[in-house]
Task: inverse folding
């Protein structure tokens, strides 16, 4: 085979392949300048979260010299609720005659007495560490019993 034919054959094969239509041409669209456009809309949804990280208190309290009890409760709550949350503390022991609750009220935390306990509320999301000082007065019948199981039930509600 002459040398010119050997050079001509690959060039001829390449030009024939260029005449075969490509598969992507059918899916492409020709758009005139200035008429193309696209927009993206992102929506980020953060689920509501309210988590109690710590609720520590003594399981059993020994009576003081006057027969009454006192203890501290540490409550750590994290919430992303826009309007905050409320903690309702209720008495669950008949041995207690009176109950007082003291807590430093900072960061907009409110403390209100309700008919069966206390209610602490926060107005906004965040991490809250609540140090609650409880004082319990014993009834006349329970003054001699000594120890008292933790008498407070804690409920948390989102606002």
Result:
């Amino acid at each position: 085979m002459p040398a010119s034919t050997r050079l001509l054959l690959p060039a001829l094969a390449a030009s024939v392949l260029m005449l075969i239509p490509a598969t992507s041409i059918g899916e492409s669209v020709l758009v005139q300048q200035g008429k193309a456009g696209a927009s993206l809309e992102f929506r980020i949804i953060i689920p509501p979260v309210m988590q109690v990280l710590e609720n520590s208190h003594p399981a059993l309290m020994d009576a003081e010299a006057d027969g009454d009890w006192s203890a501290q409760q540490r409550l750590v709550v994290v919430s992303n609720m826009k309007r905050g949350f409320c903690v309702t503390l209720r008495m669950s022991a008949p041995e207690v005659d009176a109950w007082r609750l003291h807590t430093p009220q900072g960061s907009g935390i409110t403390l209100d007495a309700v008919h069966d306990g206390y209610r602490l509320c926060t107005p906004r999301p965040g991490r809250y560490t609540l140090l609650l000082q409880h004082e319990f007065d014993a009834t006349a019948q329970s003054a001699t019993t000594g120890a008292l199981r933790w008498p407070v039930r804690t409920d948390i509600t989102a606002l």
